[in-house]
Amino acid sequence: MCKSFPPPAVSRRRFLVQSLASASTLGLGMATPAFGQTNQVDERRTPEAAIEALLDGNERYVQGEPLSRDLDELRDHVRAGQRPLAAVLSCSDARSAPEVIFDQALGALYVVRIAGNSVDPGVLASMEYAVTLMRVPLVLVLGHTGCGVVAAAIRQVATGRQMP
What we know:
The protein is mostly helical. It has helices at 12-25, 47-63, 71-79, 98-101, 121-132, 148-159; strands at 86-90, 109-113, 139-142.
């Protein structure tokens, strides 16, 4: 006979978010903004400004004219911390890299990638971390055409058969 255990007092998601918050508060370097820790509102960090930056970057990508960037300089810039302009939930498909599609520099996007853009407690906690502690002004779910995971899920619902 299987012995059941009482549910945990704290959910895994809440534990992860609280742990990350504690780590950043203790100065473990996990969420230190690149421009210094501040509670002041940065007028440039709005959802509209983030969308505009992503659309501009995508236009450069489509035109084949990405910005030239010095990776050494970028690494130095993000070493102190990160202040991404958006959190992106993206499929793990290797052909759909958000940093490339939106022509964004290292540190500009907080990307969580998982097959089919599915959300589980770990993915949700990661997105909550970006919004709560990194204060990203925009959350974007990036889908793509020809996603095998989505097609398999649709087939499974339509036929009622489990995937092999």
